[in-house]
Structure formats: C-alpha cells, structure tokens
Amino acid sequence: MAKKVVVISSSPRKGGNSDTLCDEFVKGAIDGGNEAVKYFLEDIEFGSCKACMACKTPERECFQEDEISIILDDMMDADVIVYATPIYYFSMTGTLKSFFDRCYPIFNHLENKDYYIITAVGSSNGNALTGIRDFIGFSQNPAEKAVFTVVGDVTQQDDIRSEVYEAGKNC
C-alpha cells in the first residue's frame, strides 16, 4: 500500500548536503510507489510562534496566515515524516527549531508515524539528535526508522545517497 511521505528540509542551501539527501529520499519514495512531498523551509516565509494559544482549539489553526498550515495538514495525513538539517554548533538549524515551534497545534496529534532523520555535519551530530528526538517524542507511537548522517561533500559519497534512496523506496 502506498504511503504518504512528507520531507522537511531545513538547509539554508538548495542542493546542500542535507537537502540533496532529502531529494534522494523523495526520489526513492516515489520510485517505491509512494506519494512524496518535500518542503524547503527557506522558501517559505513564516513567523515564529507567538505563544498566544489561539491554535489550541479543535481546529488546531494558527492565526498567522502563512504556508505552515499547509505543511501541518500534510504532516497530519502523512505516514512517514523526514526531518533534515545541517548541524550548526552541535544543534539543528534555527529554521528547523522555529518550524518545530510552529508545530504546536498538532504535535500531540501526530499518531503512528514513521520518522527518518537526515543530518549533515562537519564532525559530529553533537546534541542535535536530542532536540529532534524530543520533538518526535511528543508524537503518539512514533517509530524512528533511521538516522542518516553525511560528513563532507555528499556528491562524492554514492553509498550514503544510495542508502537514503533505498530507505525512501522501502519506507
């Protein structure tokens, strides 16, 4: 049965290492007969969470009129969610953290999802996985399927690109 896959790329650079692996995952997912969409967060203008609690209604909608609501709707419908980030100072990008904050309306309504994490690092993931896993942990019955980490130029590493492609194909 085909799955719905949502990929969230928080790289500041299209075609950067983590973003390239997002494309591989999407390509694999589609080749595997799944429906896949990738959101490149740098292309989406969105404001930070205002902690107004307006979203804590049955409709779970933020008052801010931006594209985040489309992503949140897709995440609610997804079977598989992929979070991708370069690692800066041993943590996820500020863009991904801001996105996670905007997930407040739905974070505890993401049920029975499979999760994949993609990171691009200079040397180490540091504490980045802790923050991402903490966010995923708010979901009900989350299943972390795999973590992919690339060190250095991903275009020179066929093995990691192939591994991510196959994960997408078999997700």
Description:
- By secondary structure, the protein is of the alpha/beta class.
- The protein contains five helices and five strands.
- Helices cover 33% and strands 21% of the residues.
- It has a five-stranded parallel beta sheet, sandwiched between helices.
- The N and C termini lie close together (11 Å).
- 40% of the residues are buried.
Topology:
Elements: E1 4-9, H1 17-31, E2 35-40, H2 68-77, E3 80-86, H3 94-102, E4 114-121, H4 128-137, E5 143-151, H5 158-169
Parallel strand pairs: 1-2, 1-3, 3-4, 4-5
Structural class assignment: alpha/beta
Rg, please? 15 Å
Tally of DSSP helical segments: 5
Separation of the first and last Cα atoms: 11 Å
Helix content: 25-40%
Strand content: 15-25%
Strand order of the largest sheet: 2-1-3-4-5
Largest sheet: 5 strands, parallel
Secondary-structure element order, N to C: EHEHEHEHEH
Mean pLDDT: 93
Q: What is the β-strand count?
A: 5
The parts where pLDDT drops under 50 for at least 5 residues are: none
Oligomer: single chain
Shape descriptor: globular
